[in-house]
Every structure is written in C-alpha cells, then in structure tokens.
C-alpha cells in the first residue's frame, strides 16, 4: 500500500486543474477539508475565482498524479481518503 499525504494531494489537484485551466500549478491554491455532511472536499482558487471540489474530483486528481509521477495505473476504487486528526494531516491510501 502506498500512502501520500496532504502536500502531495494538493500537488495532485494543482497539477490536474492547472492542465485543465491552462495555467501554472503555482497559480492555484487548494484547501482540503472534511465534514460529516459532504465528506472530503477542497476549495480551489484560480485567478481570483473559487471553486469547490467533491471527493470524486480529488480521487481523479490523485489517480492522474499516480500515473504521471509514479507510473502506476490506479483506479478510484483503489484510493481511500482519510485524515489523521492527531497530526492534522490528510492522506490517501492507494492499494497495490
């Protein structure tokens, strides 16, 4: 099992949405969150505009990141998002 943490999850989202929007990854800000009603979400800021992402958007970004950076083909069903409340850190576990 591979585990990636908050910074890599944010990088995955930035890279995915930078490609979609035609901007640099450094032009994107991402804040991850979790709540009981909506589950895992993120707020994304690009060029002064805000967009909310749901869990499936996050999983898609991680899926593409794993393929482009680790040369691993994974599927959304292989990815489990979680949070370590003691460390205050998000992580994704990817089944091998």
Quick one: how many beta strands?
6
Structural class by secondary-structure content: alpha+beta
Instruction: Walk across the major sheet and give the strand order.
Output: 1-6-5
The average pLDDT value, as a whole number, equals 95
Share of β-strand residues: 35-45%
**Strand/helix succession:** EHEEEHEE
How would you sum up the major sheet? Answer: 3 strands, antiparallel
> How many structural units, i.e. domains?
1
Rounded to an integer, what's the Rg over CA atoms? 13 Å
From the spread of the alpha carbons, the general shape counts as globular
State the low-pLDDT regions, or none.
none
What fraction, in percent, of the residue positions are helical?
25-40%
Number of helices: 2
Please report the distance between the alpha carbons of the first and last residues.
Answer: 5 Å
